[in-house]
Design brief:
The chain is built from 14 helices and 2 strands, in the order αααααββααααααααα. It is mainly α. It has one domain. Strands 1-2 form a two-stranded antiparallel ribbon. The longest helix has about 35 residues.
Length: about 350
Amino acid sequence: MRRLGCAPGVAGQIVSITRTTMLESVQQPIALLMLVSAVLMTLLVPIFQFHRFSEYGRLARDSGFSCMLVLGLALAAGTAGKSVAEELVRGTAAAAIGKPVGRVTFVIAKWLGVLGVTVIFWAGVLSALLVAERASAHFINTNDFAGYATDPISLGLAFAGVALALAVAAARHGLLRRRFGVSAFAGVTVSQMVVVLLSGFYNRFGQLYPLHGEAACHGCAAGGEHSHAGQIFYNVELNLRVIPVALLILFALALFAALATALATRLNGGASLTVCAFVLLLGLAGDTLLAGAQFWSWRGILAGVLPDLQNFWLCDAVANGGRVPWSYVFKAGAYALTGCALFLAAGCWAFEERDLG
């Protein structure tokens, strides 16, 4: 009975440490800088795009995926280094573990906190990616229009959303003494998600579906006619096929968050980021570097230990109308979950052997 009564205490400790880790991590200036940089770089692609690379919106889509992976990796590794390594140096980890909080509980909760920050970052960049791809030039041929059309309204709303989120965060900090980093980090992501939702009410030419109905839908490049005029109130003109690909990148970021958390129990933040970047390069080039390696050779062992990131980088799969099956996404999620468990187990073992005194 006593052991059963400890479960809520452990769950409460995990929730408390996870929440504290997320709040302290997004308060760091580097976290907001990573998010704003990724969102703005993604949104700027349609403005400076001079070639469509055989498909409308592909450059914006691939650029968004690249920002999501590279800057997400830097955010996950940097957050783990700040939340774990620095607490070990300052001695706050030793104070928390002596209350008592188990070392395994501490490591798992820290990973969940890092993962939470990464998910918020991922949601913001994914929303910006959807807007940027829609705002890219698409060729539209209808009875009323033939030529390339962009979506300056959605793009303008996305940029305005970033500025508004920062302004609101500054006002909350100045008037209510709220944390600027927390408000800004969450506000930027929410602003991009709101623009994605609002984009379903109008077409590329700014015509509102509730007012124009099917007439507005003729110029929306939706790919089909509507049978009942005046009945169209909301039309999702977004490439939702990118969501499975984005989920695969999120799985990869979860893997790196687990790896960075495990490394942070022994290394500082800079060393953890360096190792994660090295694993990223080997993981993306693994099929080439480790091809034909024998099972018990050093290359074969390396191939078995390192995660194959090619399983999570399927940007080309959605080119020219392609799709990633959801069955593959579920299998990749199981693979990522297994890798996270292995990394966290290694991190817990290394943390158990570390002297916190």
